[in-house]
Amino acid sequence: MDAAISDSSPPNKRRYGGVLPEERQRLRRAKLIDGALEVFGTKGFHATTVREVCVAAHLTERYFYESFKTLPQLFLATYAELREQLMALTLASLKQAEPTPLGMLEPAMRVFLEFIRDDPRRGRVMLVDSLGVNDEVAALSGATARDYSAMMRQHLHLLVPKSRTRAVMLAIWFHDAIYDTHLQDNEERSAVLAGEMLRQAGADAALIDSVQRKVRATHRHEWTDGDPDTAVFLDLDLGILAAPVEVYDRYAQQVAQEWAWVPEAAYQQGRAKVLQAFLDRPRIYFTPALQALWESPARANLQRELGTLTASGG
User: Fold this and answer.
1) Neighbours of 308 (CB within 10 A)
2) Higher pLDDT, 137 or 213
3) CA 121, CA 124: separation in Å to the nearest integer?
4) What is the rounded CA–CA span in Å between residue 75 and residue 29?
5) In whole angstroms, what separates CA 4 from the centre of its chain?
6) Model-level pTM?
7) Residue 131 backbone phi and psi in degrees, to 5
8) For 263-308, what is each residue's pLDDT tens digit?
9) Other residues' Cβ atoms within 10 Å of the Cβ of residue 16
């Protein structure tokens, strides 16, 4: 008797296809969040309608109101889902990293970079639109920045003060927002786009200026504005140069693929010139802590790739 009761569905809990109503609602809610990421991440929160989210989720509007009362409520849920994903990936990376303070920097930052570069919609939701939805989203966004930077700062030695973490993260997201190897002004175009999107999101002028300065600084990778956060940002952007050999070699192959439209001999000569320019600098990294950690492996990687190019006739 007890076994029969435990195996049966509760009263008024009709199953469809073996799935209880609560589970079906959970699945519909997840589809709405996926649809929201697509629409928020491509059009922006303020240009999005409930109908567009429902179309992207392949659901009717009545199912929207089953789980959410308003679009800001859905945005909050979408942001929270992305936050959870980012935190989980970062914690997993830190657990596998070399157990030294700065030894954990590169893999943890790589998680953040890959998280927003692999899917730029995440960056728009978490870093741009979150500035201008409502106070509840702003509070969660601020808490995320504090939590993430606190988790990172255990290993960054306070390279970036808590109050300025957002500018560095936004610059990381925007600096390759426009990237076309056929163009020579990607950085300027990306800086202009950053200004436009951040103004639309309600960001203050100081934040916009800080982000744009950092993005423009990647044109020559020179630290000229005197802002220590720009130095950190530029160093993080060049962190790949100090990656383990197999990671760096994959990066070098990806760069070559991006320039595949250029004749091989011309590419080799151009790439060799870029590598030599970095090697000729008195130091590649501006931040003392990161210079101590990354300078030697970066120079070894650059020299090895340069040797390969030279041997190939570059």
Assistant:
1) 14
2) 213
3) 5
4) 12
5) 51
6) 0.62
7) -75, -25
8) 999 999 999 999 999 999 999 999 887 888 889 999 999 999 999 9
9) 9
Q: Contact, 192 vs 178, CB < 8 A?
A: no
| Single-letter amino acid code for the residue at 59 | L
Comparing CA positions, the residue from 304, 175, 148 lying closest to residue 234 is 175
What is the residue type of 134?
A: N
Structure tokens at 162: 């808590």
Tell me, letter by letter, the H, E, C secondary structure of the chain. CHHHHHHCCCCCCCCECCECHHHHHHHHHHHHHHHHHHHHHHHCHHHCCHHHHHHHHCCCHHHHHHHCCCHHHHHHHHHHHHHHHHHHHHHHHHHHCCCCCHHHHHHHHHHHHHHHHHCHHHHHHHHHHHHCCCHHHHHHHHHHHHHHHHHHHHHHCCCCCHHHHHHHHHHHHHCCCCCCCCCCCHHHHHHHHHHHHHHHCCCCHHHHHHHHHHHHHCCCCCCCCCCHHHHHHHHHHCHHHHCCHHHHHHHHHHHHHHCCCCCHHHHHHHHHHHHHHHHHCCCCCCCHHHHHHHHHHHHHHHHHHHHHHHHCCC
Written as six digits, the tokens of 61 are: 């509007």
